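Crash report, auto-generated. Payload:
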Amino acid sequence: MTPRSRILHIALLVFAVTAPFVFPNYTVAISVLWMMVMFSLTWDTLGGQMGYNSLGNITFFGLGMYISAVTQIAIRYDVGKYTAAYGAIKVDFTPHQYYLGLGLGIALAALGCVIVAVILSWILFGLRGPYFAIGTLGVAIAAAELTAAWGYVGGGGGIAMPVFPGPPRERGLFFYAGFVLVAIVCYLFLRWLYGTRFGLALNAIRDDEDKAEALGLHTRRYKTVAWCTSAFFLGIAGALFGNMTGFIEPLEVAYPVLTFNIFMVAMPLLGGKGTLWGPILGAVLFDVLREATWTYLLGWQYVALGLLITVNVVYFQQGILGWVRAKKPEWFGVRVEDSNVKASPARSGA
Amino acid sequence: MWDNLQVLITAPVFNVQLLLNGITVGAVFALVGYGLALVWGVTSVKNLAQGDFVMMGGYIGYVLAKHGIHPILTLIPVAIIMFGFGWLCYLLVIKRVIQLDLFTSLLGTFGLALVLEQVLNLVFGGDVRTAHSGFGTIRMFHGMVTVTEIRLIALGLCALLAVGMALFMKKSRMGQAIRATAQDPRAARVLGVNTDLVYAFTFSINAAICGAAGVLISMIWVLQPYYGITYSVRAFVIVTAAGLGNLPGVILTALGLGVIEQYSGFILGAQIQQATVVSMLLIILVWRQLQLRRQRLALQ
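Recovered output after restart:
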């Protein structure tokens, strides 16, 4: 690790730890920022590194959210009765039950998402390019609609989540810590992953899948594992987010095909896909811009989002980091090795 | 669910109703699917804004109808306006994504779809709307089966448009240039076809077809800004199942899709309709995949 990248890492870590105390009123907003960083990173595993552009990663987010919700409720109540009552049941989880449910919920959400990712990969990974994108979009829409039509999990009415046993401030910090932790683990894991043979295999699939296969790579296996890592982190994110908002519902919270789902694609594209830091940079920029402008645009925010995506892909496809790399390769060359972006053979010495 | 299924078995006449509804709606899907196949084949751009062009055309027709023009007559001005709009989209977006990779075109048009959908939502609101054409209803089988006259008229208009398009592609100079470009853009350029113009024209004519389809939809069904994506998915279902440059296939799949949607809507409930369309897409994608695998095995 060179001094410059060490400073960057330490600065980010300091920000992550102190942010909820320096800006106590923005704890939830900064939690969402970390979630966005995770969204961006997990999308880029497939979209940037492997060249499989998914338009339906939100499926795992919503799935994780619902698996965790059902688990947490099932510990104490009959889920069907609970959801049928629309919050009329007086909910009283003891702290012990709550934490047990939450822990179990997150674990099962991650596990369930990985299992579903394996099943879906069997269906979807025969598709390439635009077919894969359309297929994943179809899966996301279908998941949202089917959840909305399924009465057992509350249908379109949603589920009121168990209440955190503690004061609101403590609750905010608790979930903030959860998001920061998962985002850091996600970053470190992907950073390590992209430096290994596995990362090279993903890049080979992106560059030419047929040739990679001809050279003896089991591309199917690599693609499935890559998708499972995305699903794993997204499932945890969904479980945490569901508990943080306190009320979940299929179309707007769990499977927001037009908001979070599109942000996932827009952020890495903005920052520069196929790099490790591009998605992070894109996520931070996008989320800060979104928080700053979203409420003042009065309904025009989605128009702005659509324009941003179109302009981004049509006129500025390489993203911010890609643009910097094209402008200042020598300056960037250092940075590539710094952050172990991809295929850097000098990694062991870094 | 089982009750509804039993209704179909004990009173077969309801099947006639569902078939009629399915075919009249499916004819409009065929137009949308044909437009997508045309653009896909010629420019290799996968237009995800297809459904939003339909909705936009429908809303323009709706506004014109509010100003006293009969909805059927709005077909012509709407087609002209949408042609111009398509040309504008081509110049701003499509022209630049043709040379780039396929996902870029998909995402670029997806951004376009998002913009159109939200602008429509801001201008017209989220309520469902219908343009009233003022025609009556035909009753058959002692009033058990009803079909509005406008649905039959729309069916006729769809057929007319399809025949017109087929003739245009076959006979006119531009149609021949389009077909030549679809076969081999480079050779077409060498032989003096202005392929840039052909691309622009193809995309615009697709927008015009979508606009016409939207006007028909506004008369026989409903308009809602967020329904656009469903039409895009339907168009993809049709094109993926039928393949490019296969007009009879497009028409058959579109009618079949319309009928399947009506049946699933009747048996499983209306709220499952969108899920049906996307499930159809997934089924067709998987089926295509299995087909490819069999082909690969046969080659080995």
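Post-recovery validation: DSSP finds twelve helices and two strands in chain B.
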